[in-house]
Amino acid sequence: MASPSTRSRLLGHALSAWTVAVLAVLWLPLVVIIVLSVAENAATILPFTGVTLAHYQATLQDGALLGSVANSATIATLASVLATAVGVPASVALVRYDVPLSNAFRVAVVLPMVVPGVVLGIGVLISIRTLPGITPGFVPTVLTHAVYGLPFVVLLVSARLAAVDDTLADAARDLGASPLVAFRDVTLPAIAPAVASGFLFAWVRSFEEFVRAYFVSGTTDVLTTEMYALLAYGTAPKLNVIATLVLFVLAVVLAVAMTAGDVVSAVTAGE
C-alpha cells in the first residue's frame, strides 16, 4: 500500500495533469484561430498549404472593419468612464455609509451582470422605441454598456474599500481636512488599483460584447456585429486576423495592468 506522502504526490501530479488538460482545451480554439490567420487556407488547418500575410494586408485595408474597431474602442472607453464615475461614489456610499435599502441597491447594481444579454438588450430596445426622438445607435450603446460594466466597478471597489482602514480618513478629517479632501488624499490612493481594475474589466466586457450591442447599436457598426457579419457571409480570413489582433492587444493590456498595478493583491489584500 502506498504511503501517505506517495499518495499525496500522485494526487498532485494528477491534479496538475488535469489542469494542463483543461487549459489545453480552453486555449486550443485560440491557437487554431492564430494559425489560420497566417495560413493560406484560412478555412481549415489540414491540409496546411503554407504561410501568408495576405490576410493581414487585406484586413488592414478594410476601412469598414477598422472603423468598427474604432467605434468599439470609443464606446468601451466612454461606457467604462461612465460606469467608473457612477460606481466609485456608489461603492463609497454602500461601504462607508448607512444607506437606506442598501441591500436592494446592491442587487439592482449586480443584476445587469447576471441578467441574460438577450433580456437586457430587448428591454433597452423596447424602452428606446417608446421614447420620442431616441433611436438605437451610438449613445444607447454607450449607456447600455455602462450599465453592464457598472457591477464590475462596484464589486471590485467595494471589496477594496472594505479592506481599507477607515480610521485614516477619520484622522485626516480630525486634522481639518474636508470629507472630499480626505477622500482624495487618503481613500482614493488606497482604492486606485481597484478603480483601475474595475475600469479595465468594464472596458473589456464592453469591447467584446455582442448580444446587447446587436439590439441597441442600430446603424452604428461595432466590432462584434461586424465579426458576426463576416462569419455569416463566410469571409473567414479577415475574421481570423481581426480575432488574432484583438486577442493580442487585450492580452498585452491585461498583462501590463496586472503587472504594473499588481491588481490582484491590491484588490484582495488589505495592504
TrEMBL record:
GO terms (BP aspect): transmembrane transport
Location(s) in or outside the cell: Cell inner membrane; Cell membrane
Family, per entry: Belongs to the binding-protein-dependent transport system permease family.
Transmembrane feature ranges: 12-39, 75-95, 107-126, 146-165, 239-261
The name this protein goes by in its record: ABC-type spermidine/putrescine transport system permease subunit II
Keyword Cell inner membrane applies: yes
Primary site of residence: membrane
Membrane topology note: Multi-pass membrane protein
Lineage of origin: Archaea, Methanobacteriati, Methanobacteriota, Stenosarchaea group, Halobacteria
ABC transmembrane type-1 domain location: 69-260
InterPro entries assigned to the protein according to its UniProt record, in alphabetical order: MetI-like, MetI-like_sf
Organism: Halobacterium salinarum
PROSITE patterns given in the database record: ABC_TM1 (PS50928)
